[in-house]
Fold these 2 entries.
Entry 1:
Amino acid sequence: MTPTDGSSSESGPDVREVDLVVLGAGPGGEAIASGAAAAGLEVVVVDRHLVGGECPYYGCIPSKMMVRAADALAEAGRVPQLAGDATVVPSWAPVHARIRDEATTDWDDSVAVDRLVDAGATVHHGIGRLAGTGRVTVELPDGSAGPTYEARRGVVLNVGTRPAAPPVEGLADTPYWTNREAVRTETVPGSLVVLGGGPIGSEMAQTFARFGSRVTVVQHGERLLGGDEPEASAVLAEVFAHEGIRVMTGAELTRASYADGTFTLTLGTGDELTADQLLVAAGRTPNLDDVGLETVGLDPTARTVETDERMRAGERLWAIGDITGKGAYTHVSMYQSAVALADVTGAEHAPARYHAVPHTTFTDPEVGGVGLTEQAARDAGLRVRVGTTPLEASSRGFTHGPGARGVIKLVEDADRGVLVGATAAGPAGGEILGLLALAVHAEVPVETLRTMIYAYPTFHRAIETALGELA
Ligand SMILES: Cc1cc2nc3c(=O)[nH]c(=O)nc-3n(C[C@H](O)[C@H](O)[C@H](O)COP(=O)(O)OP(=O)(O)OC[C@H]3O[C@@H](n4cnc5c(N)ncnc54)[C@H](O)[C@@H]3O)c2cc1C
Ligand SMILES: NC(=O)c1ccc[n+]([C@@H]2O[C@H](COP(=O)([O-])OP(=O)(O)OC[C@H]3O[C@@H](n4cnc5c(N)ncnc54)[C@H](O)[C@@H]3O)[C@@H](O)[C@H]2O)c1
């Protein structure tokens, strides 16, 4: 099928039959669309914004370019302790240029669209909505009705999330940033308040602080990275304090206003903060409220769409990505995409399992985690043993010197003798995590992990020490 912008004709709605409609094209949606088209199916993709979704344009990729630059500055700052003198004058210009030119082609998805078209798919920019089983309507960018599709095999829902706007008085009237504005900025604010100390807030707070911004994190919860192990949060809080980032925990923003280039932010305690910019990173809202879920018997007010182990969410309906609530990560979206593609095309595939979902927050130290935290394992009723060791106490940590803070924590199901969760916080924590993710995924017996030889002096060798601490 050739690309088309389609429209209703005067003789009535333009209804077209195809094999598969991918509604929302995040990373997983893009992948399943090209996979299904390569398998010979007639595929239509509908995306209201940029094909590829949040990750390449506003999420993972631009934010990791920012982190990379900030880490380079931090490493330069460690030279005096390690290797003499280094003078660095931070400049945001190369960061912005890499994001604009290399990562996002100035927030233009033509390359992604062309890739899909070359694979044989039809792509619409527009709002897609379910209109009953296997049926999708398209509203074109100018507000006119596009074609309606009847999908013989069905519909893949991959509509993702948008930044949540917390109900703070006055906030909507201020020019606050979300991740979308933060990755597009051409300048670094002199001072920045970050609302939210989750992965987005933590990565961005440290990045802008390393580029010279005076940063305050206002965090509702009791600690940074509340979904991770408390030991990892503690390490990060120490590093943030050392780098001059103020972290206010248990703090609630109640009022926001903006005048003459300054944000004034009132906290529940009555305390007032002022800053040049406010970045709201307080979670995500699923794009499920305007996608016609009610037409297929699903709840449009739900935060997630329930799926089975084949990613089926209903009759001729699959759901993948953040909306499934199995981990808002690109790798989960891609994993689910492969499972759903196999189901759509009738190929063999192992059913989806989530016992070993890994994640890494790319702060410095990186915080990697897989499977259950100690608390989650206890809440699940497991008999738990944990082993913990500081990374800087390892031989590699000692030789590394500045910037070696970190922790390895292992969570064992003592009855089965396997790891059900693990954390690797430290330099390259996300890379150390690889070994642990394999152990949790493959349920490698702890006794087998103890017989392994761990290269000396690597960071991952600290896993052996943590195994020795399991108690
Ligand atoms: C700042 C930031 C950093 C991140 N860093 C990482 C990271 O390092 N590693 C990682 O694994 N994950 C990271 N993530 C998360 C990652 O971006 C998401 O998990 C990933 O994009 C997968 O999301 P998704 O496929 O569910 O949908 P999304 O990427 O949100 O894509 C959904 C698509 O659906 C479209 N859409 C929505 N509604 C409609 C509709 N009605 N009709 C048509 N189209 C519609 C949207 O325009 C969008 O293109 C980060 C996220 C953010 C915000
Ligand atoms: N490296 C990565 O893999 C990566 C990076 C960024 C984002 N992500 C994904 O994107 C998701 C969204 O990230 P996020 O950081 O926005 O969400 P989050 O839900 O993980 O964290 C939001 C934080 O904001 C706090 N918060 C919420 N409302 C608040 C308020 N009114 N005042 C103060 N604090 C408030 C919460 O306590 C929480 O700690 C993550 O869960 C993750 O799955 C992944």
Entry 2:
Amino acid sequence: MPMAGPRTRCDPVRPGRGQATRSALICQTVPVITSPYIELNRDQWSALASSAPLPLSQEDVEKLRGLGDPIDLAEVDAVYRPLTALLEDYIGATRARAQRTAGFLGVDEPPTPFIVAVAGSVAVGKSTTARLIAHLLARFPATPRVDLVTTDGFLHPNRVLEERGLLARKGFPESYDRRALLDFVAAVKSGAPSVSAPVYSHTVYDVVPGRSITVQRPDVLVLEGLNVLQPAPRGPRPGASTLAVSDFIDFSIYVDADPADIRRWYLDRFLTLKRTAFTDPQSYFRRYAAIPDDIAVAAASEIWESVNLANLRENIAPTRGRATLVLRKDAEHRMSQVLLRKA
Ligand SMILES: Nc1ncnc2c1ncn2[C@@H]1O[C@H](COP(=O)(O)OP(=O)(O)O)[C@@H](O)[C@H]1O
Ligand SMILES: CC(C)(COP(=O)(O)O)[C@@H](O)C(=O)NCCC(=O)O
């Protein structure tokens, strides 16, 4: 993310013993690191929290956190109190600008939903971030109506993935119905009164036929998924639209961590799911419930390497620099650094 450019730096050279005292300069070309982000460490970020108590209990946090994510009230306080305050500020500024523009044009055009996108690898904890943001923003008087949509509903059904030889590419850009996802986000951002999105089930590992979630012009839409910062497909047909989902996003958050840590979280979660969700006869992974842990871990490792890590490297991590804010986590899921796009 930081960009390097050369500059000349000159430092005075101290004369050695017995040498003439005339000062001298030694000059060299050194790279200058500039970045479009303001970087804050954990203490700097968490110190931005206001002293008002968070409208959340430890019990709420336990309900909202994803499987394997140890986040507690103190961590929510450190990360999400400043984050939601910042988001409310962005939302207020966006609304004020929309009002000024409507006044300038002499039209009566209310602001459209503010879209917050949450991106990052499989198993990095996007759903915890998305759920906490949605829950907290809904408690602010200016944004009581908040909806949360995950992009997995826009995956092609397994039948289509199988036909196209893409079952082992689930989560890769081509495994989604990108047109439908783009149409959905564009409709929300056009102020459509009611827009529906399909729903995915992690249990059956497929899109649920006939099920949908309807979004009715909320104050905020939180959109969570691997691919929300993905650019439009490369080399589109001449004349085809180059619009991408990210063109309709007002604020994006990339949840970032070391791939070695994410791998461990993925495998630990797989073992927990093996004892819980996979025992459901409806579970796509039910065959793993009854096999020894080491064989299940070997299979999960293979899925991690060949699907999720490959997708992280090829498609997801390259979009990190497009995010408004990068939330960097340490090996224990604790926020270690926040990068915020300079205004
Ligand atoms: N095979 C599965 N069965 C049931 N739930 C799952 C399964 N895989 C993932 N989940 C759940 O789905 C949610 C989204 O997971 P994922 O897409 O990996 O994103 P993240 O971990 O970044 O939130 C998580 O809450 C996770 O616990
Ligand atoms: C469904 C997912 C692609 C996540 O989709 P998202 O909500 O981010 O659009 C992912 O959880 C997944 O199932 N990946 C395929 C490999 C695996 O089983 O882990």
